[in-house]
Design brief:
The chain is mainly alpha-helical. The protein has one domain. About 55% of the residues lie in helices and about 5% in strands. It has a two-stranded antiparallel sheet. It has a two-stranded antiparallel ribbon with strand order 3-4. A hairpin with a 2-residue loop joins strand 3 and strand 4. The longest helix is centred in the middle third of the chain and has 23 residues. The chain is globular, with a radius of gyration of 22 Å.
Length: about 375
């Protein structure tokens, strides 16, 4: 698979994310805080400048890539290897979830696993998707599979608050999009009691200490690079670079309006503020809603999907790779929403939906065994 990836993506690749991570490693190994400087990065026919705007966990997740600090045309070989590894881990984990009881649909309490309608194979086959994507494009050579893997495992480990806290916070320390996931995780654990909420917060401490370490490393700059710069990213990275990515995009409303109006309309900060308000209102509804208590995973997934889509559409420079976060949670959602009831022999092939299942339970005053 790695060989096919290299052959398909020899030319025309834009790997500014890989490049800035590579330079950040160089500063780190020289004893310089990677967040304390700006970097000149290749883009199209020229270059642009930006700070290192990925979280410090990125450097730990991708440290093995420095074993192969070799460039093949536009591709960094070490990064390419790790992209394939993390995509494989994501595919393998999701596929395993699809081949066993997900323990998420509490309304079905079938005891025999081989008859469990929740063993829908959508996740199993959907997992292969994450192993195939890197072959088709290098637009995703931004290590995005590493935070996806951490976020997916964190979601699956919700019943273990410390583990979930560690994983989701470390994912956030590698990719800013995950910060939007944190509030709904907090609400989930808070509604299960103060003790569990405290354990979740305890799990988040290692990531916060990692962030603090780099912020206190003179001359600092982490807060500016991760939070302030993200809000001030240019609509076009390099207007003079003749790069098609800067001319057209269906993934960013601010950028579309900016390009159409020749720079007259710049509403990125306003749209991001609206997104935060809407997600905040949604979190408040979850906090006080009894329906959230009944169907936690459904509402969690809906929030995560809304956050990903909203983030993609409101960033100044929205790109398609953000949307890859949708797929694992969509697969989760489909498997919960559309279980394969035909696999459950006691129920029979006549029940195809949760509505039919609920009616069966009501009529028989008991769950089928």
């Amino acid at each position: 698979m790695l060989g096919v990836f290299l052959l398909v993506n020899q030319k025309g690749s834009y790997n500014d994310a890989s490049e800035i991570i590579y330079y950040a490693f160089q500063n780190l190994f020289e004893g310089t805080n990677p967040y304390s400087t700006d970097y000149d990065l290749n883009w199209g026919t020229s270059t642009f400048t930006q700070p290192f705007n990925y979280g410090p966990m990125t450097l730990l997740l991708l440290l093995p890539a420095m074993i192969l600090p070799i460039w093949y045309n536009d591709l960094w070989i070490g990064m390419t290897v790790l992209i394939n590894i993390y995509s494989f881990l994501t595919a393998e984990y999701i596929s395993q979830l699809g081949s066993r009881d997900m323990r998420m649909q509490n309304r079905a309490t079938i005891s025999h696993e081989d008859k469990d309608p929740r063993q829908n194979q959508v996740l199993y086959y959907g997992g292969i998707f994450f192993w195939l994507i890197p072959v088709g494009t290098t637009c995703i050579t931004v290590f995005i599979y590493a935070p996806i893997f951490l976020a997916v495992v964190a979601f699956d480990k919700l019943r273990h608050p410390v583990i979930s806290g560690v994983l989701i916070s470390l994912a956030a320390m590698s990719y800013q999009l995950i910060y939007l996931f944190i509030p709904v995780f907090v609400i989930y654990h808070f509604k299960r009691g103060w003790r569990e909420a405290a354990r979740f917060i305890l799990g988040c401490l290692p990531a916060l200490l990692l962030l603090l370490l780099f912020e206190l490393w003179p001359p600092g700059g982490v807060i500016n690079s991760l939070f302030l710069y993200t809000g001030d990213m240019p609509y076009n990275k390099c207007p003079t670079c003749n790069n098609d990515f800067d001319q057209w995009s269906v993934f960013s409303i601010p950028r579309i309006l900016y390009n159409i109006s020749d720079g007259a309309i710049q509403i990125g900060p306003l749209l991001r503020l609206i997104l935060v308000i809407l997600l905040g209102a949604l979190c408040l509804w979850y906090l006080f809603s009894h329906r959230f208590d009944q169907f936690e995973e459904f509402f969690l997934i809906r929030y995560l999907l809304a956050a990903v889509v909203g983030f993609t559409l409101t960033t100044n420079y929205g790109q398609s790779h953000y949307l890859i976060f949708l797929f694992p949670f969509l697969l989760y959602y489909y498997q919960m929403k559309k279980p394969d009831f035909r696999k459950n022999k006691p129920i029979g092939a006549g029940i195809l939906t949760w509505k039919d299942f609920d009616e069966y339970v009501t009529q028989n005053h008991a769950l089928p065994l």
